[in-house]
Design goal:
The complex is a heterodimer of chains A (about 110) and B (about 110). Chain A is mainly beta and about 110 residues long. Chain A contains no helices and 11 strands. The radius of gyration of chain A is 13 Å and the shape is globular. Chain B is mainly β and about 110 residues long. The chains are: A mainly beta (about 110), B mainly beta (about 110). Chains A and B meet through strand 5, strand 9 and strand 10 of A and strand 4 and strand 5 of B.
Chain lengths: ~110, ~110
């Protein structure tokens, strides 16, 4: 079974702090994704990576950056957290090339920015 | 550009009743279509997907969906609801190929009443 783990289930941070969210997958998947989930808005793609050190912006990249130094690990960074970044963050991974593959999701990190 | 519309943010059924969750999509190329389910406090998991071939797709837990190109629809059904089906359901579309992006609908919360 594919396993995608996220470093924290719940996180509370203060405005202006630098926040790191970590995601690890154990199935040697090429592709990794970060989504943000908000009530009534569904899932919105922040960034994705299709290879080590490669990244592409999704629909809402502003205020976020990412890092992928190793194939199994994909980090989401909030350079200076703001209250409007309070949300559920979901990481996902998929095998192979293109958008036909199933994405496997982690359990999510619920971030509260005060 | 691709988009997904889920009709009804909240659907309530009785245990044993038919479940019908509606999804319409927009895509400029032949789409790949997915239904994901999210149980409380968990990440998303794949229910079923349509890529090519047979338009009636069977998934896990007795769910199925039919791709209707003329209606640009991919509605999810289950003949008899069970209490354990209570969850949020997301329809998603991808244009495949080199495009990794999966566009999600806003979700439908399914409540099952005893």
């Amino acid at each position: 079974d594919v396993k995608v783990t996220q470093s924290s289930r719940y996180l509370v941070k203060r405005t202006g702090e630098k926040v790191f969210l970590e995601c690890v997958q154990d199935m040697d998947h090429e592709n990794m994704f970060w989504y943000r989930q908000d009530p009534g808005l569904g899932l919105r793609l922040i960034y994705f990576s299709y290879d080590v050190k490669m990244k592409e912006k999704g629909d809402i990249p502003e205020g976020y950056s990412v890092s992928r130094e190793k194939k199994e690990r994909f980090s989401l960074i909030l350079e200076s957290a703001s209250t409007n970044q309070t949300s559920m963050y979901l990481c996902a991974s998929s095998l192979g090339y293109g958008g036909v593959e199933t994405q496997y999701f982690g359990p999510g990190t619920r971030l509260l920015v005060l | 550009a691709q988009s997904v519309t889920q009709l009804g943010s909240h659907v309530s059924v009785s245990e044993g009743a038919l479940v019908l969750l509606r999804c319409n999509y927009s895509s400029s190329v032949p789409p790949y279509l997915f239904w994901y389910v999210q149980y409380p406090n968990q990440g998303l998991q794949l229910l079923l997907k349509y890529t090519t071939g047979a338009t009636l797709v069977k998934g896990i837990n007795g769910f199925e969906a039919e791709f209707k190109k003329s209606e640009t629809s991919f509605h999810l059904t289950k003949p008899s609801a069970h209490m354990s089906d209570a969850a949020e359901y997301f329809c998603a579309v991808s244009s495949g190929g080199s495009n990794y992006k999966l566009t999600f609908g806003k979700g439908t919360l399914l409540t099952v009443n005893p």
